[in-house]
Write a structure and sequence with these properties.
With 403 residues, the chain is of the alpha/beta class. It has two domains: 139 residues, Aspartate Aminotransferase, domain 1, CATH 3.90.1150; 249 residues, Type I PLP-dependent aspartate aminotransferase-like (Major domain) (Aspartate Aminotransferase, domain 2). The structure holds pyridoxal-5'-phosphate.
Length: 403
């Protein structure tokens, strides 16, 4: 009789977004004429930049001609895109990489999820709390998380990120083998300074741990001294893997393109993690479409850069409107300066879900309850800056009016 991966049976189900959808549906059924404003899910709303579209059109035409048609591409990505990434995202910041240390993929979600394939299932994993749920669930699927008891996995190290520690994780008591860090952070919108990241890099090197660094939101960093890449920190190439994405940088959430950097200097257990990831990807992944990679490369042209910066600026302005508007309404807000997320403390210790319900029912605004991202998210809600500017302004006015 076939046996299944029983770790899947331990998963608590996708409670957060399905529960939000259930409550929103119940509300709209009861109030069919009410106009809801959705600042819950972190998806972009502006269309792809004209340069990206032009490059993709051109690539489509190439695919339609015998002389320029392309079949299977290189599974780690075309060099035209890897070279552009190398120059613009790394060399320009003083980080030297080799082109084959960059692996193009279809998403930071898949890569942060799949990276576990190259690590032993006995490893101890540390995650921030609250956290992007993919890190937790994929480790649970692999059997690294133990059992789910009272909203926590028994084998995971949770690093609480709360008001008292500035929403930054502290070095845990037990030494983890794999450490997930995400800056700028989803859901809290916080960033780490060079000095703060250096502490983690030194710790990982001293203890033989690996940092899995998700910088999907680096394009939203506004403050000049905040590192955009973990590899800006000395020694990081010997202890870190970095995940990046075109999703939020250039509106590719529906188009799909991302990349992961695995330095060749990263060796654990006598093995090159670069070689293991290359082996994993060449076996299980067949590359991102040529058309999409041409679109992604256009992001790095002067016009592409100008266009995506305009879009990012639009979202950053939304973030400012939310941050300042809610703050003026008497709420305590964090994030939103170097990230498209605003982490808002609920008033008078109200529970996350209670405040979510109140905003839904009274202000007709959809948010995300912080508790859905982990136990330490209780008492917070997350708002995203990815909405339309007018609707965002209106949502803030509505929230202010009910408080
Ligand atoms: N990493 C973080 C922290 C995210 O919040 C998200 C998406 O919301 C992703 C990765 C997924 O990115 P992608 O669209 O490249 O799969």
């Amino acid at each position: 009789m076939t046996k299944i991966n029983a770790n899947f049976l331990k998963l608590p189900g996708s409670y957060l977004f399905s529960e939000i959808a259930r409550r929103v549906n119940a509300f709209t059924e009861a109030n069919p004429n009410c106009s809801l404003i959705r600042l819950g899910i972190g998806d972009v709303t502006l269309p792809l930049a004209p340069s990206v579209i032009a490059a993709m059109h051109e690539a489509v035409d190439e695919m339609g001609k015998k002389e320029s048609f392309k079949g299977y591409g290189p599974e780690f990505g075309y060099d035209f895109l890897r070279q552009a990434i190398l120059e613009h995202d790394y060399k320009a910041r003083g980080v030297e990489l080799e082109i084959d240390e960059i692996f193009i993929s279809d998403g930071a979600k898949s890569d942060t999820g799949n990276i576990g394939d190259i690590f032993c299932t006995d490893n101890i994993v540390a995650v921030c709390d609250p956290v992007y749920p993919v890190y937790v669930d994929t480790n649970a699927m692999a059997g690294r998380a133990g059992d789910y008891i009272n909203n926590k996995w028994s084998r995971l190290i949770y690093m609480p990120c709360v008001e008292e520690n500035g929403f930054l994780p502290k070095i845990p008591e037990q030494v983890p083998d794999m450490i997930y860090l995400c800056f700028p952070n989803n859901p809290m919108g916080t960033v780490a300074t060079r000095e703060q990241l250096k502490v983690w890099v030194d710790y990982a090197r001293d203890n033989g741990s690996v940092i899995l660094f998700d910088s999907a939101y680096e394009a939203f960093i506004s403050e000049p001294d905040i590192p955009h890449s973990i590899f800006e920190i000395e020694g990081a190439k010997e202890c870190a893997i970095e995940f990046r994405s075109f999703s939020k940088t250039a509106g590719f959430t529906g188009t799909r393109c991302a990349y992961t950097v695995v330095p060749k200097a990263l060796v654990r257990d006598g093995a090159s993690l670069h070689a293991l990831w290359a082996r994993r990807q060449s076996t299980k992944f067949n590359g991102v479409s040529y058309i999409v990679q041409r679109g992604a490369a256009a992001v790095y042209t002067p016009d592409g850069q100008r266009e995506i910066r305009e879009n990012i600026q639009y979202y950053k302005e939304n973030a400012r409107v939310i941050r300042e508007g809610l703050s003026a309404a008497g709420l305590k807000v964090y994030g939103g300066v170097n990230a498209p997320y605003i982490w808002c403390k609920t008033p008078n210790g109200t529970g996350s879900w209670d405040f979510f319900d109140r905003l839904l029912n009274e202000a007709n605004v959809v948010t995300t309850p912080g508790a859905g991202f982990g136990p330490s998210g209780e008492g917070y809600i997350r708002l995203t800056a990815f909405g339309a500017a007018q609707a965002t302004k209106q949502a803030v006015e509505r929230i202010a009016a009910i408080l």
